[in-house]
Amino acid sequence: MSTLEEIKSKIDIVDLVSEAGVKLRHAGKNYTGFCPFHDNKKTPAFVVWPESGTWRCFGQCNEGGDIFKFVMKREGVDFKEAMRKLAARAGVEVKEYTRETPEQKEAFENLRKILEDALVYYRTHLFNNREILSYLKEKRGLNDATIETFGLGYAPAGYDHFLKHFIGKGYAERDLIDSGMLSEREDGKVFDRFRNRIMIPIRDEHGRMAGFGARIVDPNDVPKFLNSPETAIFSKGRLLYGLDRARKPIRAADQAVIVEGYLDVIALHQAGYENVVSPMGTALTEDQLRLLKKITRRIVLALDPDAAGQKAVLRGLDAARSAMDREGEFGFDARALLRNEARLQADLRVASLPDELDPDEIVARDQAEWGTIIENAKPIVTHVMESLALGRDLNDAKTKDQIAAQVLPLIEDLPSPMERDTYRQALARMLRVDERVLTGSPVQGPVARRKPRISGRAPQIESPVVSVATNPTSKIEKYCLGILFRKPEMLYRVDRRLEEFGLSALAVEDFGYTDHQLLFDAMRQALEQDAKDYQLFLTSRLSETLQSLSKELLERNEKMEALEDRLLDEVTNRLIDLRRAAAQANVSQLRFLQEDEQSNGGLNLKAYQKQALQFTKLLQSLDQAKRKLSLKRQA
């Protein structure tokens, strides 16, 4: 991940804009508010897209961009200064770019190839073992399609079956160790890490193999679950099992459900609940929650009901709250203490599982019951209150004091006064005490015998929140820029091709991210200078950060398609896709703004209708260009 992408991943654009004084409200999956860059406060024409980490004003400004552009425009600084400010906020060290070397890239690809081959190896052993296959089907309720889809396998008993098989295939022992498939003792002896276990492939959010989870077959074996060790491509605190398959369902449902076990995820997906993921057998981490926050802000924790599961829920509370609703300040400084706490940026709830059943047992009993359980998930504070009160004597004064001491800091940490007041009232009713005792207010009469000993101070260490580091749009922009950077003469050909289709030439506005806009602008200027050494002239015009981006783009496009005409078609096609995605997003948002404007008097309705019509015509032109390009490529 580049420095710029890391900064983007750790700063939520909704938080950034809100802290600039813009009051945002939900508008579908996006947010709207009054533009901070001009005086018109009659219509909320300013839109923020959390998924892409971008914003746009459909009013007087008619501008847009990402977090860097927002800070540049808001504070009147250049890109370098905006990056410095945002890096400090995100806690990211801005240092000289060090790109992934071809050797490192090849090594990572080699590790993934080993894991893919291991998947085939384990699957073969599973289908040759009727006992294990029967266990998965009859005891766990998995069908053939599910076993196939999730690539389940079996590691045979014995210490060197895997070792001998893969050494025989020509793999180096050191590579097998580095992939996590072999373990090495202090005396240098090497042996299979996974033995007599059901094997569960673990992929990253992009679907690339990262490692394995393994469940025991023999109940006497320990541990019950065993993951791949930490490797160059497997870090259990940065992965969520099933996310590669759950991304689209999570986005469609606008909700993610977190369960505790891999087989729970598989069983729930089979039952039709595909917005489910699982951590790697540990407490939730901020990095895992960041992955989810890119897709949805509605998250339900539905962990196993045993003691370990309940502890896991409580362990996850602090990580969840700090990752989702804090504003990204570090340390104990006066400025941070004086600022109001950031408003809640996620709806994080906890589902209570009944009858001491695991999720897979619940859907096996009644598939519809799972939907009801998730629908009835409760806010964290409510769950904590009820969990702490369960089975305890609420008439005992010390018990009341202990529960209040644990719950009040959570309540006081909430940014909404309405929520704080509501939860204080609920806690007072549960404990059957006067609410003023909880707030430290004086109580008249015999109740006020002593001051409460409860501290309602919120934790002072704040953690970063997350927006989007990279998404499909960003990747397409980088792809096109990389080709144009390496082949600058292609830019003129792209311009001509677009003009043939009745479209305007490529412009800075075609790129949504500030660093991409600046690099493209520098490229265009370098071409217009007609410099003898384009690369040298261009590099001299770039800041260190943009030089780093240009090096990254060069690296990404080393294996470039040799056929110029085919490459021209590919770049043109991708650029048209970029314009179409942006136009479609604008049309959708303008429709929402039109509906909103109609309910507020309709003063700007005609302006929105005019803009919507312009974008609709642009969509038609782009679709026509796509058809022409397709015919041209077939000819």
What is this structure, in a nutshell?
Helices cover 53% and strands 9% of the residues. By secondary structure, it is of the alpha+beta class.
Commentary on this structure:
- It is globular, with a radius of gyration of 28 Å.
- The protein is α+β, with helices and mostly antiparallel strands.
- Residues about 325-345, about 445-470 and about 555-560 have low confidence and may be disordered.
- It contains 27 helices and 16 strands.
- Helix 18 packs antiparallel against helix 19.
- It folds into 4 domains: about 5-90, DNA Primase, Chain A, CATH 3.90.580.10; about 120-235, DNA primase, catalytic core, N-terminal domain (DNA primase DNAg catalytic core, N-terminal domain); about 255-440, Dna Topoisomerase Vi A Subunit, Chain: A, domain 2 (3-Layer(aba) Sandwich), CATH 3.40.1360; about 470-635, DNAb Helicase, Chain A, CATH 1.10.860.
- The relative contact order is 0.09.
- Helices cover about 55% and strands about 10% of the residues.
- The strands form 4 sheets. It has a 5-stranded antiparallel sheet, with helices on one face. A 5-stranded mixed sheet has the order 13-12-14-15-16.
- pLDDT averaged over residues: 79
Helix content percent band: 40-55%
Instruction: Walk across the major sheet and give the strand order.
Output: 1-2-3-4-5
Q: Which structural class do you get from the secondary structure elements?
A: alpha+beta
Please compute the radius of gyration using only Cα atoms: 28 Å
Number of domains: 4
Count of individual helical segments: 27
Shape: globular
Low-confidence stretches: 323-344, 443-469, 557-562
Indicate the CATH architecture of the largest domain: 3-Layer(aba) Sandwich
Number of strand elements:
16
How far apart are the first and last residues' alpha carbons, in Å? 40 Å
CATH class of the largest domain: Alpha Beta
Biggest beta sheet attributes: 5 strands, antiparallel
